[in-house]
Amino acid sequence: MTSSSAGQAPEIIARALEDFLAEHPQAVVLETGKVLFDMREAKYSLATEHGRCTLHLWDESRNLVRRVSAATSRNGILRLSTHRFGQTKPQTLEVAADRDRRTPSTREATRVKYLRVLERVLERALPEWKADGFRTAMDLEKSFGPSYARGSLVKGSQAWAVIAVNEEETQAIVDGILTLGVLWLHHCREAGDGRRVYHGLKLIVPRGMATLTLSRLAWLNTSVAQWEQWELDQATEELEQRDAADHGNLTTRLIHAPNEEAARERFGDAAARVMALVPDAMRGVVEHRIRSGTELAFLLHGLEFARTRMAYSGNSFNSLQEITFGTGANETPLTEESEGDLRELVARLFARRSPAGDKRDPLYRMQPERWLESVLRRDVEPLDIHLDKAHVYTQVPAFAAADRGMLDLLGVTGDGRLAVIELKADEDLHLALQGLDYWIRVRWHHLQTSDSATGPSFGLGEFQRHGYFGGVRLSAEAPRLYLVAPALRVHPATEIVLRYLSPRVEWVLVGLDERWRAKVKAVWRKRSGSTETKMNLTLGQVP
What we know:
- With 543 residues, the chain is α+β, with helices and mostly antiparallel strands.
- The chain has 4 domains: 10-96, no CATH class; 104-242, Trna Endonuclease, Chain: A, domain 1 (3-Layer(aba) Sandwich); 260-365, no CATH class; 368-527, Trna Endonuclease, Chain: A, domain 1 (3-Layer(aba) Sandwich), CATH 3.40.1350.
- 25% of the residues lie in helices and 29% in strands.
- The chain contains 13 helices and 26 strands.
- A 7-stranded antiparallel β-sheet has the order 2-1-7-6-5-4-3.
- The radius of gyration is 26 Å and the shape is globular.
- The protein starts with 9 loop residues before the first helix and ends in a 16-residue tail after the last strand.
- The relative contact order is 0.09.
């Protein structure tokens, strides 16, 4: 895209921004280098009337309206030439694919400096062990990137695998350290010549950034390796070991199940208005999803394109229903003037987002996990014929943190056992431990009964007190974990990590046919405890 002195057509600008945000849902909006909006939390609307493109951005703390005259894209940055109202001098807003704007050379310098600090700290804190082979070099074949420092601590024939991350990396990088740590321990054991016995793994994380990792650590198999977590304060170079049993409160909350019948009745008129703008031939594939007692969403193959919710009228406490439309973070109020825009959006979605669509199209690729979730919500039995398709819920409980890029379903088998279902449409080496995160939280809520003395098999569990699984007698057993992805997109690291999970976590890895958008079919399944997944290891042995 190039701009001219007269500016670009408003429709071209709007399309460029919509496609960029569809491709990069974690984008941030910057002005003079300062982050104004994180698009995981912010909303936006675009208007293209009267020959101009008007952009409205807002979140809980800020509101911005600009006229946009041009959009240019380069190196993961979309630059918008904008004008404040009443001003002719253009200014620039940058929409970056992610928050980390450091240059490669800056990141590399930070990691090299941290490597020196790490070796100095280890020598002082653990003087009986010798640091050996520490590096940050990339090894794509084994999934090791430069974000993590890795090496060994050696004393004679005894050794520990060590992996560490510095405090300037993003929280997502820090949260990924255990997956890479397991792979590093596995590599050290397999690549060894038999002269070193690796007892286990030492994780070194920045102070105050390791709660999630600590909660995961408690569910690894202690019969095949020892697991230690240490926190480093880089300013003081103090290193402190953490107890995996002390991971504090879980960042999770249980949302009460809405009364769907009452909500559908409440939003009946609003739903009729939206559906009147959808062509008759397309209405059968539009999903009406009750988000809560105060919000109803309309989705096409998992992609939300309109919603109606209860709001307040002006400065009064009188409630009213508002309807907005748009995909992703885009929200435009539905008015008589904008009805044509909704019609155009619906037509564009149905043309570009279908099982037979163009796989290169941003709208086709947008939110693939939500597409897979929408298919499985209709019929979950292809994963396991014992799953009850009448009781399938989305993101219950919810994470208090931002969306992790994963979609979680909660179901139940015919014998009342809870089923945690973690979905991934693309390759992700963190699938196993992200599924474990959700399993930990579901298990915790399942243990919260109205009568703690009798346990979940007799007391009314927290899920049913919140309106889930009505009429089902839930089993006292721990949930079963289902990890689901297209068969060719299951990362090779997944099965390695699963071998190191505690035997208390019963899991099923399901590989789907690649044509799941048209029809879901499981092409293979692997289960914990099966012959092919067992690790015949004893503590300290080399595989």
